[in-house]
Structure formats: structure tokens, C-alpha cells
Specification:
Blueprint (H helix, E strand, L loop, with lengths): L9 H7 L5 H12 L8 H13 L5
Length: 59
């Protein structure tokens, strides 16, 4: 789509172009997949988050 000066056309121009190149997105995903991140069971993780908000410390 070519810009013709109409403000109504601006959103259409922005939609036509991806914000980030697809190859760059895939590169970032592949890089992140090579790393290990700490995880926990969802119940344990939610309990830790709640304890942090409430000020309780589980020992």
C-alpha cells in the first residue's frame, strides 16, 4: 500500500508491515529455548507468590 497523505490510511500502513522481522523473532525464540530457567509446580509457585505479598515466610 502506498501512502497518499490520508490520515485514515495510516493504520492500514502500520498493519501491512510486521513490527519485527520474522527471522529476528525466530532467532530470539531459539536463543531463549537454549537456556534453562527455574520452574516450580504451579501450586508451589502460587503459594510462594501469595506468601510474598502477605509477608509470610514459609520455613
Amino acid at each position: 500500500m502506498q501512502w497518499n497523505g490520508s490520515i485514515e490510511q495510516l493504520p492500514l500502513l502500520l498493519i501491512d508491515r510486521p513490527a519485527v522481522d520474522i527471522a529476528k523473532k525466530l532467532e530470539v525464540i531459539r536463543l531463549a529455548a537454549r537456556h534453562c530457567y527455574p520452574t516450580a509446580e504451579i501450586g508451589d509457585m502460587l503459594a510462594q507468590i501469595e506468601a510474598g505479598y502477605s509477608g509470610r515466610v514459609k520455613t
